[in-house]
Amino acid sequence: MAWTGLGAVLVEIEARTYRVTCPIHGVVTAYTQWAYPGSGFTRDFDLTVGSLAVYLPRSVVSEYMRVDWETVGRCINRTRGFQDGGMACGPVDENIIAAVKVTDGSRSF
Question: Which residues form the Transposase IS204/IS1001/IS1096/IS1165 helix-turn-helix domain (predicted)?
Fold first, then answer.
């Protein structure tokens, strides 16, 4: 999977991500430190867009960050959802850690 970084120079981070089975949410992509779940941007990029959107209209943020208007809304939702705990599985319960397993990593979904 690839993510677009923050800055004037295009930076792509490529890393192998795994699909895991969560007892609560089913099969999901494993957590990465640099990106929110479902995002094609780094966490810093999403947070920057979300912070700018607090004070500026979406049209200004989209022009400044060079993304479309709808992407600004998705960045806002990701940062807000993650801060509220809505997108995370929550704290790890050691009693159910054995139930979480890594799938084979195949691309057939």
Answer: 33-78
Burial class (CB in 10 A: 0-12, 13-18, 19+), 15: exposed
Q: What is the tens place of the pLDDT at every residue in 10-30?
A: 667 777 878 888 888 788 877
- Rg for the chain (alpha carbons), in Å? 16
Q: How far is CA 75 from CA 34, 56, 86, 102, in A?
A: 14, 14, 14, 28
- Please name the residue that has the structure tokens 């139930």: 99
7-11, 60-64, 79-83: least confident range: 7-11
Q: Tell me what the pLDDT averaged over the chain comes to.
A: 74
Per the structure block, which two tokens stand in for 63?
Answer: 């022009």
**The two three-digit tokens of residue 102, written as one number:** 């890594």
Residues 6 or more apart in contact with residue 79 via CB below 8 angstroms? 36, 46, 47, 49, 50
Structure confidence by residue, pLDDT tens digits, 44-65: 889 999 989 989 999 999 999 9
